Every structure is written in structure tokens, then in C-alpha cells.
């Protein structure tokens, strides 16, 4: 099950074994996904919602936290991890809204490890080694090139990613809907009043020396937004 030996030894540990048994005692022997009775308790799988990695396995708030553990049957577990030819249908989400509306936070909370995330700010960072809020104009054509390549990958469902998230302002309704169509994406609107965006900008530490610039981005988004 686990690729890393550190994870294998976690699954053999007494802490994990006894937590798993106590959760089974507490919650019963029904699969928490499909409701099927699982006859033998050794077939009940304790699945970690936040996937275990060598980095987080020692964090007991993740590895031994009952809220992060789901008791599921073999079939559901394979579906969750899209194994053995279960056609893990790739879902695509286009997350849009004004600057400071919480798009990145939303994606961070809803994505899973193995998802593909396309975000201009992050792409800028990747090729400039600058913080995400500092985007030199002269790199635009290179960054947009990578961005468009990834969008093409999503359109053709190329690659082995699970779900994909495209983050952006997309104020213009026509452009937004056309892109969503091409991507086969579900639109998710991060609704936020202009005053609230400006208030968050005021409180934002990282952008504190670029407030004028970001206030302009916010103004521009609301000027061009079409519902
Ligand atoms: Zn199940
Ligand atoms: Zn699992």
C-alpha cells in the first residue's frame, strides 16, 4: 500500500493498530462511503483524508487524528485512490473572482495531493524565483506560454492528474464561459464585495508595500466584471 518504508512502519505501529480498532469499535463495521457491511474487521481500511507522506506521518494531528480517518471498504478505497482501472473521472474547476476574494485559499482547502493547479501567480514564482506578488512584466509571454500549455493539457485531459483547478480573475462573462466550455470545467465564483476585498488588502502583510498596485487590480476587476 505504501511506497515509503517510513509509511509502512507507521501502518504496522501499535499506535495505528489500536487507533484503527478503537475507531471500528466506535463507528461499527459499515463502510463510511457506501454503507456496505464489512464482514471481517481486517477488511476495514482506515483511509487518511489528508494523504500520509513521509513529511506528515509524524504529525499525530494528521496520522492519528480520528477526524482525518475514514473507515471504508476495499472497493471504495480503490475508488478514492483511483486504482486498478477505476476510471477516476478527471474533474476540472475554474475558480474565479476579484483579487483578495480567497480563490487560492479555497483551492488549497478543497484540492487533494495529485491534483493539477494552474495559477498565473504561482507560475510567475516558479520561473522568476520572486514572491508571488512580484510579477515582472518582461516575463509575461513566457509565463502565459506555460499557462496555456497547461490549459491545453487540461482540455485534452493529458496526463495522470486527478482533478484540475484553474485559478484566475476571469471578470468577463463571455471569456469565462468560453474557457469553462473548452476546459469542460465547473465554474466556482468566489463572491466578495469590493469593500471587503479592499479591507482584506489593507490587512494583508505580504502586499503591504504594493497596496496601490493591488487596489488597482481590485478596481479593474469590478469595472470589467460581467455576471
Ligand atoms: Zn464502501
Ligand atoms: Zn487511503
UniProtKB/TrEMBL annotation:
Task: Return one GO MF term.
Answer: nucleic acid binding
Q: Name one Pfam family in it.
A: HNH
**Which residue numbers delimit the HNH domain?**
31-83
List UniProt keywords, sorted A-Z.
Endonuclease, Hydrolase, Nuclease
Protein name from the UniProt record: HNH endonuclease
Upper lineage: Bacteria, Bacillati, Bacillota, Bacilli, Bacillales
Amino acid at each position: 500500500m505504501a511506497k515509503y518504508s517510513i509509511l509502512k512502519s507507521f501502518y504496522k505501529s501499535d499506535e495505528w493498530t489500536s487507533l484503527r480498532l478503537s475507531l471500528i469499535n466506535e463507528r461499527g463495521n459499515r463502510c463510511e462511503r457506501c454503507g456496505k457491511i464489512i464482514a471481517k474487521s481486517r477488511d476495514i481500511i482506515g483511509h487518511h483524508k489528508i494523504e500520509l507522506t513521509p513529511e506528515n506521518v509524524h504529525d499525530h494531528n494528521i496520522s492519528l487524528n480520528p477526524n482525518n480517518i475514514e473507515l471504508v471498504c476495499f472497493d471504495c478505497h480503490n475508488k478514492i485512490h483511483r486504482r486498478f482501472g477505476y476510471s477516476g473521472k478527471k474533474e476540472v474547476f475554474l475558480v474565479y473572482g476579484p483579487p483578495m476574494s480567497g480563490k487560492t485559499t479555497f483551492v488549497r482547502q478543497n484540492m487533494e495531493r495529485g491534483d493539477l493547479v494552474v495559477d498565473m501567480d504561482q507560475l510567475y514564482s516558479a520561473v522568476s524565483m520572486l514572491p508571488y506578488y512580484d510579477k515582472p512584466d518582461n516575463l509575461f509571454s513566457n509565463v502565459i506560454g506555460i499557462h496555456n500549455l497547461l490549459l491545453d493539457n487540461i482540455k485534452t485531459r493529458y496526463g495522470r492528474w486527478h482533478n484540475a483547478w484553474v485559478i484566475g480573475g476571469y471578470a468577463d462573462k463571455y471569456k469565462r464561459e468560453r474557457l469553462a466550455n473548452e476546459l469542460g470545467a465547473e465554474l466556482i465564483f468566489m463572491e466578495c464585495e469590493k469593500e471587503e476585498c479592499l479591507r482584506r488588502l489593507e490587512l494583508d502583510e505580504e502586499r503591504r508595500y504594493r497596496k496601490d498596485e493591488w487596489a488597482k487590480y481590485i478596481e479593474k476587476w469590478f469595472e470589467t466584471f460581467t455576471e
